[in-house]
Amino acid sequence: ARLVAKGYRQEEGIDFEESFAPVSRIEAICIFIANAASKNMTIYQMDVKMAFLNGELKEEVYVSQPEGFVDPDHLTHVYHLKKALYGLKQAPRTWYDTMSRSLLDNDFFKGEVDPIPFTRKT
């Protein structure tokens, strides 16, 4: 079971600013692979399980206590989220920003034309 936010109740400009996460065009992927092959580079890919749950929120987001998690001593309390939940409009963008920051902090570089492929010299 997962906790899911009711993102359909969020309003752009009030509850979040950006919701999109960049996506590479197929042409950029082909150029990236061709360039890597011509330079005899190794390409790695990754899949992060529950990626959106690792995105650090910039906005103040509060959610009501979901059924099954209600504190009987504090029925009117709400949760203040530190990280994104599935269902939040900004979840894809917060994950991309968090992952991007981590890669850049570890000596990776973003592509000049396409922001998705990250490279690092070894």
What descriptors fit this protein?
two-stranded antiparallel ribbon; 2 helices; RVT_2; elongated; alpha+beta; DNA/RNA_pol_sf; 122 residues
Low-confidence sequence ranges: none
Task: State the oligomer.
Answer: single chain
Largest sheet: 2 strands, antiparallel
Gross morphology is elongated
**H and E order:** HEEHEE
- Tally of individual helices: 2
As for the number of domains, it is 1
Rounded to the nearest angstrom, the radius of gyration is 19 Å
Strand order of the largest sheet: 1-2
Give the end-to-end Cα distance, rounded to a whole number of Å: 41 Å
Q: Could you say which structural class the secondary elements and strand pairing correspond to?
A: alpha+beta
- Could you tell me the number of beta strands? 4
Fraction of residues in helices?
10-25%
Strand content: 15-25%
Mean pLDDT: 89
Produce a short descriptive summary.
This protein has one domain (19-119).
Would you mind describing this structure in some detail?
Residues 1-110 form the Reverse transcriptase Ty1/copia-type domain. This is Copia protein. With 122 residues, this protein is of the alpha+beta class. The chain has one domain (19-119). Helix content is 23%, strand content 16%. The chain has a two-stranded antiparallel ribbon with strand order 1-2. Strands 3-4 form a two-stranded antiparallel sheet. β3 (109-110) and β4 (118-119) form a beta hairpin. The longest helix has 15 residues, at 91-105. It is elongated, with a radius of gyration of 19 Å. The mean pLDDT is 89.
